[in-house]
Each structure stands twice: as structure tokens, then as C-alpha cells.
Amino acid sequence: MRVRPTLLLGMVLLAANVLAQQLNQPIPFDPQTKVGKLPNGLTYYIRKNAEPKNRAHLMLAVKVGAIQEEDPENGLAHFTEHMAFNGTKNFPKNELVSFLQSNGIKFGDDLNAFTSFEQTVYFLPVPTDSMKVFLRAFDILEDWSHDLTMDETEINKERGVILEELRGGKGASQRMRDEYFPVIMNGSKWGKRNVIGTEEILKNFKPETIRNFYKTWYQPQNQAIIAVGDFDVAQVEKIIKEKFGAIPAATSPKPLGEFPIPANSDTKVAIVTDKEQPYTIVQILTRLPELKEKTFADTREKIKRSLFNQMLNSRLQELTQKADPPFQYGFSSTSSFLGNYDSFVSVVVAKNGGIEKGLKAVLDENARVAKFGFTATELERAKQNLLTGTEKRFKEKDKTKSEAFAMEYMNDFINDVPSMGVEKNFEFVKAELPGITLEEVNALPKTLLTKENRAVIVMAPEKDKATLPKEAQLLDWIDNSGQNVTAYVDEVISKPLLAAAPKAGKVTAEKQIPEIGVTELTLSNGLKVVLKPTDFKNDEVLFRSFSFGGTSLYPLADYIDADQSNVIAAQGGVAEFSATQLKKYLTGKVANVSTYVGELTEGMNGSFSPKDAETALQLIYANFVMPRKDPEVIKGYLGNMKDELEQKFATPDPQGVFFDTLSAVLHGYNPRYMPMKPADVDKINVDKAMRIYKERFANASDFTFFFVGNFKVDEFKPLLEKYLGGLPSTGKKETYKDLNIRPLKGKVNKTVYRGIDDKAAAQLVYSGDFVYTPENETNLSAIEEILNIKLIDEIREKESGVYYIYAQASAEKLPKPRYSLSIGYGTNPGRIDELATKTLAILEDMKKNGPSQTDLDKYKIETKRQLEVQMKENRFWANSLSSSYQNGEDPKDVLKEMKLVDQVTVASVKAMAAKVFGGNLIKAVLLPEKKQATSSK
Questions:
Q1: Residue 84 counted as domain residue
Q2: Residues in domain Peptidase M16 C-terminal (predicted)?
């Protein structure tokens, strides 16, 4: 059949027109989600999802944030969020937090909220196997939506907490932001808001002001209830309609408002310095019209931008693989911004004295793309990576956590971006990706790389102020960049990762542990493999491994080489592949392998998709036997490390100095745990580091590997025999050396005077010998959790003395059984000792009387609820198995954890507290520099 040219042309145009019509269709909402709106204007999203089982993730999303505040209200959107946990109609004062804790919901970890410029969102994960608690959760959401009590006493108490949050945020970043943010916001309201507010307003606003703010903005039309979890959708919809449908609609709702940023044809420049800023950072930000995903065409455009970002940043990453990298770090990317804006941002963290070189390097890559575009091979790799990521999410559609769906629906409500659903998204990406042409992507710089609405920020150490470029010089560098660039050459190796297959070993012994679904294999080279197949994820296998030895086997003179050995080896890639070439080779594959050499052990950890199991095992094999030394890349890595340390020591960060000091004390001032200095980099012997790396991975018989995830043991065995069984082995069994690195004994007080801000921090660290048993470890964990409940209640809520305070306990069996329990907090320098005294009094009370039964019950239900979820997670099992085998424990002990929690009593915690709080105590305090002058008088 012959078709006339005019008819053929018509058919092509018709097909193109149909495609355009399809792309211009609105994105349909995920059909598995029930979306509705009540007569009063409140929106709701409901979805059934059983990951995790017997749980629901509830949210209240409010389209109100700092941008809605008037000047006298600055900070009150965030303050309102805090008040949601300090008294509601059904839960006076702090009863809401206490009620949820008593039902297994942790404050801070589970129960939480955040405020930003345009939204305030509350998170409430709850159990669904208790209808009483589940229904009560909707009472909480309803109270948050319109029934906060805003009691004056509670408001005044919370002032102290938020003032401490404000204090904790002080520092170089905050001071510089206060200078540059109004400049890049071009005089708009955005530049006058900072979410947290000001000290003056937080101290002095009248309670009626925040009550009016709450009443004005917390209206149904500005709110959404989001419920995703293991429940009946119809029942939840009925609950929402009954509880929230009765809330009156706003009679005269105040519009949320539009807050445009005035356009600027000239480039806005802010050059700011600070005494405590260690590095020079340059950011070029161009505001763009927002690309809002309303139609399939919008989604297609987003895909193009994603491909663009991926390819451009791959090129920038390659620049760090040189003998003299032009910067410490650099990237360019399109992203969302504030309000109705997107942005194109280029950032460079410059080397010392290298602001011009670093900035030009990033801008040259932008210009290279604008002039010559990307290559076909780059685009193909980017497409493969994007498709792989999308396919992975599709494969996990029935294993996705409820929280992830809830966050999507929050994004729809706040930003008006509909969630089409994982299946539709995968279908669309798979269909559209092949048709996105190189010409389309290469055309993007015309709209992204523009001088309009551009701002430049330079953040630098104050000591460098005199040598920084002036505004005119800076703009000259930017506007004249890329004049001499040439086209990018894409270097790819078209060969297999392994030139020859290893000589496979065999499984010589097999043991089943049916209680926990584990199979133990011993291979002919002596390597042991522990396998736990699961159905927790469809597209995930995690692995861990260890062998005893580590840096402990090397004398102090060789320590730095041993410590850096795995990092130096990683710089060169493996086999015949450089690190850059290896990344390209792994395009479209999900296989991640990282090596480590610690104090007592060495090994490899990672993850892979079941379809890429062989690739992952090839990578493991190659990292064992074919590490690749790349002198040029290693030289660049060491040069950047030295430069970073030089800048760090020239402008020490107060918190960094404090924790370096604490680490030194906790390790008895052992030279191996002292902060690394620039001169130490010059001592690194690359050849020795590579030799040590090879030594640590020369003997497969000393290794144990753990694989947890979606695989079948019988199908996996041949790959294990081929690659792990093919590893070389000496048959020698090594162990670590106990270097006797311990904290200083007795009561030690250490004060660090650093920083210009009026803020302080403290760490109280108890440590000592420990009888390592499952029962003792459980009681130690109980102390940690109960202390966190108690410290928040007493020191934060009652004393209003801190924003954060935490207890953290750990027990280690190797090299000798020991425990550590630390308490950390930040506060007003004038209260640092007072709060330490009050904290120690809480510990003494626990030693004397044990915990209250109420707090003990909270610990038990929280821990058991957490275990219910963790027992269905690959990560939990990978870590548990690795830990039990390292410590020589029975891996089945994990099944006793629920029983061990039940066996904890007031008396057992009291007894453990007497041991823990009777040991060595290190009290480390960080105070402002000005306090040193005062104390020395």
C-alpha cells in the first residue's frame, strides 16, 4: 500500500496533536487515595496501607507559616506549633505528651511538628490495634485544629524553651543569614521573616496576640487531615466527618496572601564575613517562575530538569577526581524555592585562597553545557539511573511506609502538587523517557542560566575580608566565565568489571537456625556467610561483614596510614576502572559497596537490588583483590583534606573544638583519638596505606558476611560460591589488640571557652566496667529511655531551661565490657551549673528510689511498640546479626527482647542506676570566650 506524502504528514501531525493533548491533561490523583473536602472547607486524604502493620501515620497540615505573620507576630507561627503540646481542650497542660507516651508514642521521635515559611505540620503516628487510642488520636488532631487552650501560664513557660531554641541557633550561619537574606529576597516580606522570631518579640508579646494569630489562621479552609495506615478507610472517613465536620466554617476568612519578590535586572550581591566562619562559600541563585506539576507536560518538564541536574553534577564531581581539584565542593541544580518560585543555584565551597578558581570552575561547567550541551551517552546514563530509581519505588509500592504517602499528600495540600501514585508515575516515566531528546535537554540552559533575578552570596571567614573580591570583580568573573571552554569528552570503558571469573569455591558446611529463619554457610576458603531471606522489602538486600584486627594491630607510627587505608584505596576505583569510570559502569544498577577499617575490625557493608546481586558480589570481590591505586586522585584527595584542616584550624568552630576536647578526654588523650592536624596529612604514606588495606582484606577465612533481604538461599548460593568462595585465604585467624583506650578515671571537669555568642553546652558522661548480659543491657537501655522522659519533663518543661536535652546510653563487649551514659544539653551560660545540679539530682533520685512506675510503663510500651516495627525491617536484622556474631552471642537472643523488656522492674532499674551513676564522671562544659576573662579575675 502506498501512502501519499501529504496524507503521511497529516497522520504525523495528528499523532503529535493527540500526544500534546494527552500531555496537557491534568494529573489525576492517586486512585488508591480517598480525597475529600468538608462543607467547612477542611480537606482530607485517606489511604489504607499496612506498612508498618497495626500503625497509622496521621497529620494535620496547616497552610500557615512565618510569611503570614505581621511584624509584631514574627515567630508566632512557630510558637503556636509549640503550644499544641502545652494544653488543648481534651489534654490540659502536658497531658497530651504524657498520654501518648503511655501508649508507646515517643515525643520528638514519633510525635513531632515543624514550622516553615508557608506551612505548619503536625505528625502523629499511632497504633491501630487499640481502637481507644486510635480514636483518641483524632481528638488530638481536632484539638490542634481549633481548640488549643493558649493558657497564659503555659505560654510564659514556653517562652523560655523557645528562647533557648533561638539561642541554640545562634552562630556564624545565623549571623550571616541575617545579613544576606534580605538582599537576595530583594526587600520583600520574605527577607523580614526567620520562622523562629526575635528575642524581643518572644519575650514580650502579649498572650492575646498569639491567641488572635491562632484564631485567624487555624481555620478549616487552611487545614488538611491526612490519615494513612492499617485501618478501614470508610471508618476513618466517618470519624473525620463527625469530628471535623462540626467545626464552623470561617465567616470572614483572611486570605493567605501572595508575597511576590520584586524582579531585579541587576544582580544583587551580598558579601558577608564572620569571625567563626571557617570556609568561603559562594552561592549564585537565580529565581525562576515556579514549574508547578499540574499536567503531564509539567511532569515531563520536571523529568528533563532532573536529567539536567544529574548530568551537570556528574561533571562537577569528576573535577574532584584530579590531582589539584579546583574546589572543596561544587554543585549546580534547579530546585524549588520560596513562594511561587523555583531557582537555579550554583554553589562552591572554595579552597583556601581559591575563591576565583573554584567559582570559575563551577561556572565554566555551566557555560560548557550552555555552549556544547551534553552528549548522547551522558543522557542515556541519566535516563537509566532515573528509570531505575522510579522502578525501585514501583517495586516497593506495597512495602512503602505510611509516612512516605502522607508526606506526598501534604505536598499536594501545601504546594498544590497532585500525587499521581507510584504505578501511574512509573508508567508515565517509562513511556516518556525514551522520547526526551538530547536537543530538548540541551535547550534548558536558555531558560535556566539567566542574569535576570540573580543574586550572589559570598560567606567567608572574617580574617579573609581584606582579600575577598569586590562586587565588581565578582560580577566580572561570573559574567565572563566559560569563554575558553571546549566540548566535554565522555570517557567510558566498554568491558566487564572482572576480566576473568574467579575460581569458585564450594559450600563445605551448612547450618539452619529455624527460630530466626537464618542459614549459616561455610565456604571452602573458610569464609562464613549468614543468610536471612525476608519479604520486608521487594527490592532490597542489605549486607554487613567483619573480620577482627583493624587499626589496633598497627603501631602508633603506622596508625594514620591504617586509619586512612580504606579511604585512600577507594579513591582509585577497582580493577581497570577509575572511581569515575566505575560510577558510569554502574549506571542503571543498584549495587553499593563501601569498605571500612576500624579500631577492632575491618569489612564491607552495602546494599543491592536482587536483580543486581551478581554485580554487588563482583564489586565485593574486586574490592578485596583488585583495589586500584590512582596517584593523581589520591593527591587531590589529600590536598583537599589538608586544605580543609588548615581552614578548620585557622577558624575553629566552637562546637567542633568542644567535641574534639570531649573525645580526647573520653579516650584518655590517646594520640589515636586526638584531632587530626594539617601536618598529619603530610605524614600519610600512600604506599603503606595501600599495603595495609591489602593486608586487612587478604584473608577471606577470617571474614563473616551477613545478607538480609529479598533472595532465595538456593539461588544465591552459586553466586556466593563463585565470588566470596573465590576470594584468597591464608587460613590464619586474627584477633584485635586491646590498646587499653579508656576515658579518664574519677571525676573530671573540663571547661572549653570558645564562641562569641551568649550560649553554653554541657555533656555529663558516666562510664565504667560492665557485666555484659542481655538483662543488664536491657536495664541500661531502660535508664536511657526513662531519663529522656524525665529530663524533658523536668528540665525542659518545668524549668524552661533548655530546648534540647537528651540521655544516650551504650554498652560494648569488645575489647572489654564497658558502659557509657551521656547527658547533653544547651542553655544560657548563667544556668549551666544550675541545670547540671538539677540533672544530677534526678540521677541521684533514680539511684535512691528508682523510676516511677508510670515512667517505667511508658518505657516498656514505647520500646515494645518500637520492637514490633523493627522486627520487620532488614536494617534491624542486619545490624542485630552482625552484632551478635561479633560479640560471640546467640543470634536467637533477639527473640527474647520483648520478654527482657517485660522483666524490667523499678528495682532492677534502681540497681542498674546505682552501678551506672557510681562510675567515672566527666563533666565537659562549653562557655563563651568572654566567660574566661570573667573567671580568671
A1: yes
A2: 205-386, 693-860
Each residue's pLDDT tens digit, 716-750: 999 999 999 999 999 999 999 999 999 999 999 99
Do residues 227 and 280 share a domain?
no
Across the range 344-357, mean pLDDT stands at: 98
Q: 468 by DSSP, 3-state: which?
A: coil
Domain count of the fold of the chain: 4
Q: Is 228 exposed, middle or buried (0-12, 13-18, 19+ CB in 10 A)?
A: buried
Same domain, 471 and 514: no
Among 550, 301, 324, 537, CA closest to 432 = 301
N residues, the chain: 937
**Whether residues 715 and 841 fall in one domain:** no
Q: Are residue 817 and residue 879 in the same domain, yes or no?
A: yes
**Element (H or E) spanning 152, and its range?**
helix 152-168
Instruction: Tell me if 8 is assigned to some domain.
Output: no
CB 865 within 8 A of CB 53: no
Are 195 and 280 members of one domain? Answer: no
Would the CA dihedral through 65, 69, 75, 80 be positive or negative? negative
Report helix, strand or coil for 67. Answer: helix
Q: Is residue 812 part of a domain?
A: yes
Residue 12's pLDDT is what?
Answer: 40
Q: How far apart are CA 453 and CA 286, in angstroms?
A: 6
Q: What's the mean pLDDT when you consider all of the chain?
A: 96
Instruction: For residue 840, give its domain range.
Output: 747-935
224/297 same-domain check: no
User: Which one, of 616, 639, 619, lies nearest residue 627 by Cα?
Assistant: 619
Q: Are residues 198 and 311 in the same domain?
A: no
pLDDT at position 902:
98
Taking the model in full, what pTM does it have?
A: 0.95
Residue that has been written with the C-alpha cell 564562641 in this structure: 755
Say what the pLDDT of residue 1 is: 39
As a whole number of angstroms, the distance between CA 157 and CA 162 comes to 9
Q: How far is CA 75 from CA 65, 193, 200, 206, in A?
A: 9, 8, 11, 13
Q: Is the pLDDT of residue 6 over 70?
A: no
CATH number of the domain bearing residue 826: 3.30.830.10
Omega of the bond prior to 52 within 30 degrees of 0, cis? yes
Band of pLDDT at residue 937, cut at 50, 70 and 90? low
- The 518-523 sheet, strands edge to edge: 507-513, 518-523, 528-533, 704-709, 541-548, 601-608, 591-597
* Contact (Cβ atoms closer than 8 angstroms) between residue 56 and residue 408: no
